[in-house]
């Protein structure tokens, strides 16, 4: 059985030193390129000459010149190192990099997940990781950027406004609600806003006050905004929901906004660490998020 023989090559460092010196015509310039001393280049080439048992350079005071043996060796090494460089660059270009964007569970489910394919189209060499969490994450360790709702984000963070949230009465068209009188028998859908004493929290009492309608109590209550959306889509009642989170359903007619005021909420903001602002992952997330929500910002201007 044939046994494969290992490669019989001189040390790679010596071959690299020779190729650089032959290409640059100087031990000094080769040393600068390889970030070593001219003495180290001279030592590597002398080692290669000893292994090959042939002189590769004619040495002069200020320059070096290839011998016939060196001239035969150089083209093969030059072409080989060119191929190495091209292969390494190809691997570098096609390596998978991950950009992690954090947002609330509702925002990821309702707005970011349906847009995720556009990220892959715009940045084919990147993987988008969506971190769904209703609690702020560490933007120096656990995510590259976040989309957050509300004022302020803490010291050391950069915030860029995206668009203002707005809340309206929405319901399934199957309920046939057209005016205030139709609300008498319609259950109110509530969800736990989670921030106590927030003046911009979307509360039914504020909507009734703005609409000039006597307030009502009772109905259905959920601890999660997504569940409140699902119940509204199923025709279980009327809800005070973010028009941005149900924008697709409003556009398709699965939900309607029959009447009444719209309450202003907080701004959605893109947030990232000032210490990480120059990272490539932060840059691609910023470009993608701004492109995705530029239309929402223009609609409010």
Helical/strand content category: alpha/beta
Name of the level-1 CATH class of the largest domain: Alpha Beta
Identify low-pLDDT runs: none
Biggest sheet layout: 8 strands, mixed
Description:
The longest helix is centred in the N-terminal third of the chain and has 26 residues, at 68-93. It contains ten helices and ten strands. Helix 1 (12-24) crosses helix 2 and helix 1 (12-24) packs across helix 4. The protein is α/β, with parallel strands linked by helices. The chain has two domains: 12-93, Arc Repressor Mutant, subunit A (Orthogonal Bundle), CATH 1.10.10.10; 98-300, D-Maltodextrin-Binding Protein, domain 2 (3-Layer(aba) Sandwich). The relative contact order is 0.13. The chain has an eight-stranded mixed beta sheet with strand order 4-3-5-10-6-9-7-8, with helices on both faces. A two-stranded antiparallel sheet has the order 1-2.
Provide tags for this entry:
301 residues; LysR family glycine cleavage system transcriptional activator; WH_DNA-bd_sf; two-stranded antiparallel sheet; DNA-binding transcription factor activity; eight-stranded mixed beta sheet; transcription regulation; Arc Repressor Mutant, subunit A; D-Maltodextrin-Binding Protein, domain 2; 10 helices; alpha/beta; 2 domains
List the helices and strands and how they pair.
Elements: H1 12-24, H2 27-34, H3 38-52, E1 57-59, E2 64-66, H4 68-93, E3 97-103, H5 105-112, H6 116-122, E4 126-132, E5 145-149, E6 157-170, E7 188-191, H7 204-211, E8 220-222, H8 225-233, E9 238-242, H9 247-252, E10 262-273, H10 280-300
Parallel strand pairs: 3-4, 3-5, 7-8, 7-9
Antiparallel strand pairs: 1-2, 5-10, 6-9, 6-10
Helix pairs in contact: 1-2, 1-3, 1-4, 2-3
């Amino acid at each position: 059985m044939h046994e494969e023989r290992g490669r019989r090559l001189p040390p790679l460092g010596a071959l690299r030193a020779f190729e650089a010196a032959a290409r640059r015509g100087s031990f000094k310039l080769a040393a600068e390129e390889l970030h070593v001393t001219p003495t180290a280049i001279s030592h590597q080439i002398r080692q290669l000459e000893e292994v090959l048992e042939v002189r590769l350079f004619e040495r002069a005071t200020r320059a070096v010149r290839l011998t016939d043996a060196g001239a035969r060796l150089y083209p093969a090494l030059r072409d080989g190192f060119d191929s190495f460089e091209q292969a390494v660059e190809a691997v570098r270009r096609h390596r998978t990099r991950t950009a992690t964007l954090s947002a609330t569970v509702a925002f990821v489910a309702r707005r970011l997940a349906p847009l995720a394919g556009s990220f892959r189209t715009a940045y084919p060499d990147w993987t988008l990781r969506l971190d769904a969490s209703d609690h702020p994450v560490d933007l120096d360790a656990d995510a590259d950027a976040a989309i957050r709702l509300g004022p302020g984000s803490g010291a050391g963070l950069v915030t860029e406004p995206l668009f203002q949230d707005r809340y309206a009465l929405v319901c399934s068209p199957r309920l046939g609600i057209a005016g205030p009188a139709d609300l008498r028998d319609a259950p109110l859908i509530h969800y736990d806003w989670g921030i106590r004493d927030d003046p911009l929290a979307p509360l039914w009492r504020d909507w009734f006050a703005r609409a000039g309608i006597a307030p009502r109590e009772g109905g259905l209550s959920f601890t999660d905004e997504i569940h409140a959306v699902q119940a509204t889509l199923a025709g279980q009642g009327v809800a005070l929901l973010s028009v941005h989170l149900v924008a697709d359903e409003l556009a398709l007619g699965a939900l309607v906004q029959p009447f009444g005021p719209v309450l202003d909420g907080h701004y959605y903001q893109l947030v990232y660490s000032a210490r990480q602002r120059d990272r490539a992952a932060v840059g691609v997330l910023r470009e993608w998020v701004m492109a995705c929500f530029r239309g929402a910002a223009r609609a409010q201007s």
